[in-house]
Amino acid sequence: MFPDTRHEEPFDTLPLPPVALHPMPIPTEPIGSIPRPPELVEAMGKVAAGAMSQQDIKALYDRAIRDTIKRFEATGSPIISDGEQTKPSFATYPIQGLEALAPDGITIPFADGHTRQLPRLTAGPFRYRTYAASYLKEAKKHARVPVKQAVISASALSLLYPQTGIPSYSQEQFLEDLVREAEADIRECLAAGAANVQIDFTEGRLVIKLDPSKGLLKTFIALNNRVLERFTPAERARIGVHTCPGGDRDSTHSSRTRFASSTSSSGTPGPTRRSSLASPTRSIRESRRRKRCATAW
């Protein structure tokens, strides 16, 4: 029988025994995109429509980068990023302007009903048009603390190759080219002085949603490992892997997919398991309108 405690001191007023507290640092760092200023969003829409030139928008890009870096540094984060203010897309920046593309690639549905569609590769050989180091070099001009750089995973770009194949350009040839280009993308960032490089593996949770057997996840992990195996242990210590439910326009493509409990049965996640954690960037996000550019993907 439980004792009658109705006349005892309330629990929250009872004295607690002394406890020795030891500070435990939790490494954190910014993980990627920061919402663009509304005027930049509007200008990027005009550029996409052919109503504004890249030269005309450059001043807005520069202003957004400087403002984002200034706000990041004000949070006290020891490592910052440029918030991907100037990337046309976190996923397809390497192929922006590539001629061998068709618009009818894989469609990615989001929880609120909107979709994003990747392009489809139509010919080889596959080459990047832009490497992420170009964004890093610009950010470092304005930063007073170490800068990290995000790159897209090889597995994400592997979705460009059509299931029907490409005449005279096999999927294996494409993957060889892709792995080489993904390696070059990371190496250029390291050579340009990135504090570390974040591989965006946002499709990691999406593929579990699309293929619950996790067969596609294993294929993606193996492909990304082909890239990571080209780096030394010391180099891999500066390379992290980020995954998330895929945020876009205040919605996600796989927030209900439990990624953490799935990797145990999908094989080793790769030579590096360091994940990027979010730093205190809420003030930056809340001070700008949550309006995404139409080309966020």
CATH class of the domain at 84-279: Alpha Beta
Order of helices and strands: HHEEEEHEHHEHHHEEEH
Strand % is 5-15%
Poorly predicted residue ranges: 1-7, 264-287, 289-296
Shape: globular
CATH architecture of the domain at 84-279: Alpha-Beta Barrel
Mean pLDDT: 84
| Number of DSSP-assigned strands | 9
Give a structural overview.
By secondary structure, the protein is an alpha/beta fold. It has a domain at 84-279: TIM Barrel. The chain has helices at 38-48, 54-74, 133-140, 154-157, 171-191, 203-210, 215-228, 233-236, 282-286, and strands at 101-102, 107-109, 115-117, 120-121, 149-152, 197-200, 239-242, 247-248, 251-252. A hairpin with a 5-residue loop joins strand 2 and strand 3 (115-117). Helix 6 packs antiparallel against helix 7. The longest helix has 21 residues, at 54-74. The chain starts with 37 loop residues before the first helix and ends in an 11-residue tail after the last helix. Mean pLDDT is 84; it is low at 1-7, 264-287 and 289-296.
